[in-house]
Write a structure and sequence with these properties.
Radius of gyration: 21 Å
Number of strands: 5
Binding site for ATP: 9-11, 17-18, 144-146, 183, 192-196
Largest sheet: 3 strands, parallel
GO molecular function, one term: ATP binding
Distance between the termini: 31 Å
Oligomer: single chain
Helix content: 40-55%
CATH architecture of the largest domain: 3-Layer(aba) Sandwich
CATH class of the largest domain: Alpha Beta
Structural class: mainly alpha
Shape: globular
Function: Catalyzes the attachment of tryptophan to tRNA(Trp).
Strand content: 5-15%
Number of helices: 13
Subunit structure: Homodimer.
Order of helices and strands: EHEHHEHHHHEHEHHHHH
EC number: 6.1.1.2
Strand order of the largest sheet: 1-2-3
Bound molecules: tryptophanyl-5'AMP
Length: 327
């Protein structure tokens, strides 16, 4: 059975972009693949985090994973910091990574732009991400479009290691959805929807109350004109909303265009809000009952034990090949 691995940062609230671009696929893939899903708390600290908030958000993401359909008995779901092999292999891969490669990463450029002091961890972040994936010899990595470049680097590092030390790592493939790989911000379709955007109206958080969702969608920026037409080049704002509609309703884009033909943006936005609410309301109910059940910690502990077993196997092989003395 092919292996899948992916992860999300517990920094801030997960958004509809996270869900459509990645999380939705996690649950689907677990029926056909052996899956590892992480909450990447070590990655989250590459920017300053309030300790209490980090704890809360890590639990929230774990609960959202389950609410979105991940079954911790079927998939291995765990916190990155619980499996120390990530930090260890991360360091080893950092030594194989070139400065130039890290300097080219657009996520680093975006996150460091205009900052006076930038943590070294933000720079070496992609080497740790490569370790996440390679520790489990994942074949497939479901991610949104913005992680493509990190995946390319992971593949390069795997090749580099294999060439230098002999065949060790599987070369992973990205698994990126055709529609919804890049959900854009509601206030400006030239930026991706992001949980770190200070304008709360620019994103829909998975835990936003239905009325908040309705309000945010009614205020979403639309292009001039009134035609509900998917044309990302000329109508980027409306095209983004159509992508969201398509993903929430599972309707093809052409059907959505036909449905609102000649009706203008008003009815379209109203229905879109209801589609999003219909998707998120049951997820939010499941989320609340998981948080209340108190079962999260035992699920995470079991996940960490299973993950560590596999991670240790790979790490020992890596250490042996690199020339470390093993006991
Ligand atoms: P993160 O936490 O920023 O995002 C989690 C996932 O959500 C996707 N995503 C989006 N997809 C569509 N539209 C959007 N607006 C949008 N915003 C976010 C991201 O592409 C991602 O798939 N580096 C990763 C976390 C990570 C990881 C890994 C992923 C660490 N190790 C190993 C896969 C495998 C990140 O920062 O994702």
């Amino acid at each position: 059975m092919k292996r899948v691995l992916s992860g999300m940062q517990p920094s801030g609230k997960l958004t509809l972009g996270n869900y459509i671009g990645a999380l939705k696929n996690f649950a689907e893939l677990q029926h056909t693949h052996e899956c590892y899903f992480m909450i990447v708390d070590l990655h989250a600290i590459t920017v300053p985090q309030e300790p209490a908030a980090l704890r809360e958000q890590s639990e929230a993401v774990a609960a959202l994973y389950i609410a979105a359909g991940i079954d911790p008995a079927k998939s291995t779901m765990f916190l990155q910091s619980h499996v120390r092999q990530h930090a260890e292999l991360g360091w080893m891969l950092t030594t194989l990574t070139y400065m130039g490669e890290l300097e080219r990463m657009t996520q680093f450029k975006d996150k460091s732009a205009g900052k006076e002091s930038v943590g070294a961890g933000l720079f070496t972040y992609p080497s740790l991400m490569a370790a996440d994936i390679l520790l489990y010899n994942a074949d497939l990595v479901p991610v949104g479009d913005d992680q493509k470049q990190h995946l390319e680097l992971t593949r390069d590092l795997a090749h580099r290691f294999n060439q230098r030390y002999g065949e060790t790592f599987v070369i992973p493939e990205p698994y990126i959805p055709q529609v919804g790989a890049r959900i854009m911000s509601l206030d400006d379709a030239s930026n991706k929807m992001s949980k770190s955007n200070p304008n709360q109206g620019s994103f829909i958080a998975l835990l936003d109350a239905p009325d908040v969702i309705r309000k945010k969608i009614s205020r979403a920026v639309t292009d001039s004109g009134r035609e509900v037409k998917y044309d990302p080049h000329n109508k980027p704002e409306v095209s983004n909303l159509i992508s969201i509609y398509a993903q929430c309703s599972k309707k093809p884009i052409a059907e959505i265009e036909a449905l609102y033909d000649g009706q203008g943006y008003g009815p379209f936005k109203k229905d879109l809000a209801e589609q999003v609410v219909a998707l998120l309301e049951p997820l939010q109910e499941r989320y609340r009952s998981i948080r209340e059940s108190g079962e999260l910690h035992s699920a995470l502990r079991q996940g960490a034990e299973r993950a560590a077993e596999q991670a240790e196997k790979t790490l020992r092989e890596v250490k042996e090949k690199m020339g470390f003395i093993l006991f």
